[in-house]
Design goal:
429 residues; alpha+beta; eight-stranded mixed beta sheet; five-stranded mixed beta sheet; 16 helices; 39% helix; binds histidyl-adenosine monophosphate
Length: 429
């Protein structure tokens, strides 16, 4: 039993760590709701075919990183490596015609068989946002601004936004023809990884981190020079509007992203504080994906934020959990029953209640209340229980005398008066 461990690249999130996760998620979800974005939940397990067709066979994600297996019915299944393909499938399958414009978000675990390191896991979590049916450049700007502001709301500073345009299908086709010719001639000057990509996914070579390859690529044809007038105009408007919103960005013409479905706008937000796994958010436009998967022609754009990386960046203020409002010290058979009854009643007031269930001595219970920094305590001993009453007071030495009150169990009015004057802020009254 002792050598049972979690799988490499997966982690247990323990209660103390989860305080930060929950605080971060709360802020993110509030922002998404303010932007009128609705949640969608799709299965974690999908047909393997979905990702092969959606993400592309030549990508690293599909060719090397998927958790794929046969189920008992001999169907090839895959734990989702990302959320966009699943959202596209769900929309097609559930009929998109009644609602062609949708702003959606999802959050949950994703799975990629990569080498684990700080900020890179095999089971990780993403918050994704997808704007479906939106074609205008304004939706690109809105999506980038939303990602930027979500990170800003968490107080994360010193982020870098990199943008690029991948053009439309024709622009890419024309570029690829010329790029492939150049690659044939220069093949031997590239690193091995890049050489292997020539037939599988030549565009990804642009993204190579190999210094020698990067140098050689300086003389390669540039996708930018193959953009049609419309694609170029779209890109120029995007830049103007980002300037207008004062969202700083740098252009990175080598930013191609690791998934095949992108067209036009591609972007990433990185932070130097993350080390080698610097990208906290990645996204872009995918106008062909839904059609390619059998749906109607539907432009779309989205992004996903890696939550593990986000948690690494979010400040330690978010590690603080909600303080206990009332600790109920109780001892004795009758007192314990009454305490249980009272705690259920008190939770209806949106108070954080801690009830001792161990039967520990009064002094141990006081110590626990002190450790929890409980704002107040209720005491129920044998005497109080036989009188059907309890003592309530602030758990603060200065206010010991004057704030203490004995209240009968049935006396809700007196209890509410005490709560209003001692625990609830004026705005809650
Ligand atoms: P992605 O760039 O593959 O895009 O992933 C988005 C983010 O997920 C990354 O920037 C990173 O923060 C996080 N991430 C990826 N792999 C790992 C890992 N192994 N461990 C920890 N974090 C990781 C997508 O997944 C697209 N679906 C984004 C998108 C949505 N594009 C359009 N709509």
């Amino acid at each position: 039993m002792n050598n049972l461990k979690n799988l490499r690249g997966t982690v247990d999130l323990l209660p103390d760590q989860l305080i930060k996760w929950q605080n971060v998620e709360k802020i993110l979800l509030e922002q998404l709701s303010r932007a009128s974005i609705k949640e969608i939940r799709t299965p974690i397990l999908e047909m393997t075919e979905l990702f092969i067709r959606g993400i592309g066979e030549g990508t690293d994600v599909v060719s090397k990183e998927m958790y794929t297996f046969f189920d008992r019915g001999e169907r090839s299944c895959t734990l989702r490596p990302e959320g966009t393909a699943s959202v596209a499938r769900a929309l097609i399958q559930n009929g998109m015609s009644s609602n062609p414009l949708q702003k959606l978000w999802y959050m949950g675990p994703m799975f990629r068989y990569e080498r684990p390191q700080s900020g890179r896991q095999r089971q990780f979590h993403q918050l994704g946002v997808e704007f479906i049916g939106y074609e205008s450049v304004r939706s690109d700007v809105e999506i980038i601004a939303l990602a930027w502001d979500l990170l800003g709301k968490l107080g994360i500073k010193e982020l870098n936004l990199e943008i690029n345009t991948l053009g439309d299908f024709n622009d890419r086709f024309n570029f690829q023809k010329s790029f492939l010719k150049w690659l044939e001639i220069n093949k031997n000057s590239l690193d091995l990884d890049s050489q292997n990509r020539i037939n599988k996914n030549p565009l990804r070579i642009l993204d190579s981190k190999n210094i020698q390859t990067k140098k050689v690529l300086e003389n390669a044809p540039k996708l930018f020079d193959f953009l049609s007038d419309q694609s170029l105009e779209r890109y120029l408007i995007l830049k103007d509007q980002l300037d207008f919103l004062k969202i700083p960005f740098v252009e990175n013409f080598n930013l191609v992203r690791g998934l095949d479905y992108y067209t036009h706008t591609a972007f990433e937000i990185t932070s130097g504080a993350l080390g080698s796994q610097a990208t906290v958010c990645g996204g872009g436009r995918y106008d062909n994906l839904i059609k390619q998967m059998g749906g109607p022609e539907t432009p779309a754009i989205g992004f996903a934020i890696g939550l593990e990386r986000l948690i690494l960046l979010a400040g330690n203020k978010l590690e603080v959990g909600r303080q206990t409002d009332i600790y109920i010290v109780n001892k004795g058979l009758n007192a314990e029953s009454l305490a249980m009854d009272l705690s259920r009643k008190l939770r209806n007031y949106d108070l954080l209640i801690e009830l001792d269930l161990t039967g520990a001595s009064f002094s141990k219970q006081y110590k626990k209340a002190n450790k929890l920094k409980s704002k107040s305590i209720i005491v129920i001993g044998d005497d109080e229980a036989s009188n059907k009453e309890f003592i309530i007071r602030l758990f603060n030495k200065d206010s010991l005398e004057n704030q203490e009150e004995t209240i009968a169990f049935e006396d809700s009015i007196n209890l509410e008066n005490w709560l209003n004057s001692n625990l609830f802020s004026k705005s809650n009254l």
